[in-house]
Structure formats: C-alpha cells, structure tokens
C-alpha cells in the first residue's frame, strides 16, 4: 500500500489580506490530487491545519467539501487530523467534523465530534486496507499540561501500536521546533510503521532507527509567511510506500503557481530589484509574490504615503505582488516587524495582553489561556490556570503590575504565600483580570 501525506494546508490563508495566497493553496491542492489519482495513490493523510481558521468562510468550506467529495467519490480515502488552526476557540465542532459527518471516505477520527463519543485514545482510529490509522487528538492548553497529556497518550499507544499501524498527529517535536512550541520527543513516538505529522511548516523527514519509527513533516504547500520563503524544500505530498519491511519515504514535487521572494532593500533601490524579479519570471508562472523588507535609514526616511505610492507604482509597472512585510531601521538597528501584525492572531492578542501586564509575557500567556478555557467552559483547565496565576511564583509580577511595589520596601513576611491566601491582593488581581477577560 502506498499513501500520501500532506499537512499545514491552511485553506483560507490570506496573509496581508492577499487573495492570491489562498488561490495558490487551492491550485496546489488541485494539482496534487490530480497527480495522486494518476499515480493511483488514493489514501491521503492531512495531518492538521487543513483550514487556516476554525471557522472558515462558507465559501472556503463549500470549496473544500466539493473538492474532497470529487475525490472520495472516485475512491479516495482521506484521513484528517485537527490542528491548532482547525481547533475551535469555543465549545464547538471543527470544520473537519462537519465534512466527516457529510462525506463518505473522509475521516476525522479525533475531531471534536468523536471526542465526545469516544473515551479511549485507542478509539481514534480508522482502518483502510491492511492498516489502522490512529489519529492523535489535538491538545491545547498550557505547555506543561500539554506535554503531560501527550506523554500519557503516547506511552499508552506505545504498548499497542505495531507495524500494521500509522500514527497521525499535529504537534511539535523537540529538536525540530522552538523549545516553547515542542511537546514531545521523537523517542516517545510509538513503534508504528510511519508517523505522519503536521505543525512544522518546514519539511522534515526522519527515516527511522531501531527505537524511533520513521516520521515526517511534509511542510506547507506554499510559503505562508515571510520566514517560510526561506524554506526551500520541494512542495507537494510525501509518498509513503508501506509494502516493504520499512516505510519508504519519497515525494512528488509540485510546482507552486508563482515564485515567492523576499526583497530587502531601501525604497530607492526597490525598482531596480523589482525589475530583476520580474525579469526572472519563468514562462507559465504567475506574477511573483514579493515580501518586502524595507530598509530605512535616518537620512532617507520616506513618509508612509510615499512608501505606499511607490510600492503601488512598481507593483503596477512590473506586474508583481508586493507586500510590505517589515520595516528595518538600519541606523537604529531596530526592526519594526509589521509582519507580526499579520501573523497568528493569537500572538497579537498575547502581545497586547503582555503590554497591559507590564511586559510579563509568561503571565500574559496564562491570562490568554484562561480567557480561552473560560470560553470553552473547560472547568478543569480554568481552575488549574487560576491556581497557577494566583501561585506564589507570580506574586512578584502581580505586585509590580498592581503597583504595590512601586517603592522599595522591606521584605514582607508573607511574600511566599500564594496570592489566593491574601484576600486584599486577590481582590485586586481579580479586578485586573476581569478587565482582560471581557
Ligand atoms: Mn500549520
């Protein structure tokens, strides 16, 4: 049996509000599935972040349902995992549940729908051919808790999974992503024939050793942000041949419809480079997508209007899509990351919270989690978060935020006491929190 593995598709992604990115994703999907059908590869794993948002537009949903039905009606089996982007903020089903409930041949065994009716991790599975695909539910929440939950799930699976099983999940592994984004070690992966992962947008392929099964991240289909332009891996599906003793991982390369480039330049030089990019355009390719990092020195500090007009002029003249990703102030050596405004919406919210909370990013993260666990009506997580927020470790942060340590004072005897045992302080914290949780 040969299967295809995709992840981090992000249907509906419109970075900088740019429609073409979503069009590119859809055109890549069309090319990929046409190719898979030609190659008679009809089992496809989508390892999370099928959609860019948990509530895709109806238009994107209709497009996706039509697309999936087109292929399932021709005998495809599609297995999807929920990713952080597919995961609803409030208690709700995921768009993948909706498709799984309405399209035969599309499976989301660990969607929220299944979550409510099944009670064991061993139930989140689907059997296709001679293989059983176990799909890990996406776990959200505070990092430490997530790690514990993944640890428990993976060690439970380790006892039962074997070479007739494929594990599917959307999570970051240590060694492949930032420390704060990782929740498990490769050594914790159960001994399945192949582990189909998603979450990391770069391509990572691990062939497997005695202790660790083969695993891979296919990477995103097109660069979804400036930093992903630097990922130069081939785009398209990974192809896993399961017929031998070991899973053989190969790939089908699919050409994106356009080139994506980063231009780091001063405004005066933009036209020069834009001409080069436009001249490099390969026949049959659409207009290149330029992420512009504009360098500004104190001497040549153009106004916002001037920048906008110049970009519009060059965009028109050379038939390029140019988007201002960031402004780099080269003399001050400070970067204004405009791009972050367009990044993950949660990071914007966290940054706002952090600035309201006197720059205490750890606390901001906790308050952010609290807000969302309240919205989900997750009582267990909410009370755990409140306990952490009111613990003695965060006393100093709260004192600074509430201004009670604005002037130096002698060491208070109960400074080691958790905040929840300090009624006056607790009331103040509560009032402050209520402001954020609106
Ligand atoms: Mn993703």
Commentary on this structure:
It is built from 14 helices and 18 strands. It has 438 residues and is an alpha/beta fold. It folds into three domains: 2-251, Metallo-dependent phosphatases (Purple Acid Phosphatase, chain A, domain 2, 4-Layer Sandwich), CATH 3.60.21.10; 260-339, no CATH class; 344-436, no CATH class. The strands form four sheets. Strands 4-3-2-1-13-14 form a six-stranded mixed beta sheet. It has a six-stranded mixed beta sheet with strand order 5-6-7-10-12-11, with no helix packed on it. β16 (289-296), α8 (304-318) and β17 (321-329) form a beta-alpha-beta unit. α10 packs across α11 (361-375). The relative contact order is 0.09. Manganese (II) ion binds at residues 8, 49, 83, 85, 199, 201.
Strand content: 15-25%
Given the C-alpha coordinates, what overall shape results? globular
Give the tally of β-strands.
Answer: 18
Q: CATH-wise, what's the superfamily of the largest domain?
A: Metallo-dependent phosphatases
Radius of gyration, in angstroms, nearest whole number: 24 Å
Question: Percentage of helical residues?
Answer: 25-40%
Largest sheet: 6 strands, mixed
Intertermini distance: 52 Å
CATH top level of the largest domain is Alpha Beta
Number of structural units classed as domains: 3
Which small compounds were modeled alongside the protein? manganese (II) ion
Give the quaternary arrangement of the chains: single chain
Q: Structural class from helices and strands?
A: alpha/beta
Helices, by number, come to 14
Q: Return the average pLDDT rounded to an integer.
A: 87
Largest sheet strand order: 4-3-2-1-13-14
Write the CATH architecture name of the largest domain. Answer: 4-Layer Sandwich
């Amino acid at each position: 049996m040969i299967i295809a593995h995709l992840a981090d598709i992000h249907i509906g992604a419109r970075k900088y509000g740019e429609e073409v990115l979503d069009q590119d994703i859809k055109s890549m999907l069309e090319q990929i599935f046409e190719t898979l059908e030609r190659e008679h590869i009809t089992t496809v794993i989508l390892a999370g972040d099928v959609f860019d948002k948990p509530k895709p537009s109806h238009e994107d949903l209709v497009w996706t349902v039509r697309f999936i039905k087109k292929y399932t009606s021709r005998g495809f089996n599609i297995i999807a995992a929920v990713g952080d982007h597919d995961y609803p903020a409030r208690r709700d089903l995921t768009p993948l549940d909706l498709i799984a409930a309405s399209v035969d041949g599309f499976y989301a065994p660990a969607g929220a729908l299944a979550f409510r009716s099944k009670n064991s991790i061993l139930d989140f599975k689907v059997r296709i051919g001679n293989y059983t695909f176990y799909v890990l539910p996406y776990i959200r929440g505070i990092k430490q808790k997530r790690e514990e939950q993944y640890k428990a799930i993976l060690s439970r699976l380790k006892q039962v999974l074997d070479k007739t099983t494929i594990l599917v999940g959307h999570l970051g592994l240590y060694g492949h992503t930032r420390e704060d984004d990782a929740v498990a070690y490769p050594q914790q992966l159960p001994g399945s024939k192949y582990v189909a992962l998603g979450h990391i947008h770069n391509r990572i392929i691990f062939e497997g050793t005695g202790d660790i099964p083969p695993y891979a991240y296919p990477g995103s289909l097109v660069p979804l942000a400036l930093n992903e332009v630097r990922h130069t891996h081939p785009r398209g599906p990974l192809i896993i041949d399961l017929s031998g003793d070991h899973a053989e991982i190969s790939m089908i390369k699919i050409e994106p419809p356009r080139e994506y480039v980063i231009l780091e330049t001063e405004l005066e030089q933009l036209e020069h480079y834009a001409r080069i990019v436009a001249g490099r355009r390969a026949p049959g390719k659409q207009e290149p997508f330029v992420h512009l990092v504009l360098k500004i020195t104190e001497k040549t500090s153009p106004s916002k209007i001037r920048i906008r007009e110049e970009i519009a002029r060059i965009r028109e003249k050379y038939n390029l899509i140019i988007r201002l990703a960031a402004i780099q102030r080269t003399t001050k050596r400070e970067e204004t990351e405009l791009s972050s405004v367009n990044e993950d919406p949660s990071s914007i919210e966290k940054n706002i919270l952090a600035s309201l909370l006197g720059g205490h990013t750890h606390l901001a993260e906790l308050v952010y989690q609290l807000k969302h666990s309240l919205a989900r009506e997750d009582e267990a997580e909410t009370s755990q978060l409140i306990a952490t927020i009111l613990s003695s470790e965060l006393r100093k942060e709260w004192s600074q935020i509430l201004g009670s340590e604005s002037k130096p004072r002698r060491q208070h005897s109960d400074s080691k006491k958790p905040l929840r045992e300090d009624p006056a302080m607790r009331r103040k914290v509560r009032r402050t929190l209520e402001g954020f949780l609106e």
